[in-house]
């Protein structure tokens, strides 16, 4: 078993229009037996980084090491890693048994009996032993996905590389497979790098998560640290569902002044904004409290739209004295007087109702207005 080190790695693609920097000076240490999730929006470079580790893509600069060995130029077939793709990539003309045995036949000196035994063991682990003689076309999506995982397990690799392996499954199966995969990874103790664009998947599966945007590493840490102490506005907005509310605010004396509301500073917030003219103010939907009387940090708001989710309600709010200039309602671009809050599904609130919403000073996040770096 081995850890994996990604050291100052950059990947530049050249095409007719010029250069695309897909990965920009990324360094990550993945510990032996760790489950690391690489997460970020579409196009941020996740697959490119994974493919470089797998030897499927060249490294422009920097080094990738498995244990003590630099593997930049090692061909995929000589690397002790197993990759699982979203597309499963099973050979359609081979049986499940054939698919699972293929890698072993190619790369090991095991006898047919030994290969058969390993395939059977891995198939039992993935609960597909009764499907060994079927062709991929005779399997459901979920079963094909198990075969793809079984094929990775049977090789007993030092590292698993998984590129959105659950993306094609329906929500229920995906949730079930997440748990199963985690248990499997723990049992096998194989260092795993798992790529997803789904922040929920990242939060629930990873020992640590590495968040990428525009080819750059934004933050790496355990999921709760990234949630509670985001390194910058990108991470704050990416982790958490619904996304954090953000407002551009000027610093004026002992208060923050936004386009549509003012927020008195506490000592702690005042210290954080000292010497600044402007900040970005952030509050998570789940930190907004309903009820009580209007006050310094409590605002009268109108309920615009309620989205019931069962266990919770997502509530779209607007400041009560707002006119219709910003008729944003449920839109991607939130207007400067619109908030999203979540409350328990047990609490009932209806569109058109007037409520008081408290924005607790202890729950406020502040970011540099220009760089987006977290300052509080
Ligand atoms: P997704 O979640 O959509 O798969 P991703 O985060 O995995 O996205 P990559 O596929 O790694 O992103 O792509 C990163 C960037 O590199 C993108 O801008 C993409 O267009 C570019 N890119 C990827 N492969 C190539 C290639 N072979 N040639 C040129 N550009 C490429």
Automatic annotation (TrEMBL):
Family indicated by similarity: Belongs to the ABC transporter superfamily. Carbohydrate uptake transporter-1 (CUT1) (TC 3.A.1.1) family.
Protein name, entry field: ABC-type D-xylose/L-arabinose transporter
Domain of life: Archaea
Known partners and oligomeric status: The complex is composed of two ATP-binding proteins (XacJ and XacK), two transmembrane proteins (XacH and XacI) and a solute-binding protein (XacG).
Catalysis: reaction(s): D-xylose(out) + ATP + H2O = D-xylose(in) + ADP + phosphate + H(+); L-arabinose(out) + ATP + H2O = L-arabinose(in) + ADP + phosphate + H(+)
Coiled-coil annotated residue ranges, if any: none
Keywords recorded for this protein, A-Z: ATP-binding, Nucleotide-binding, Transport
Primary enzyme class: translocase
Organism: Halococcoides cellulosivorans
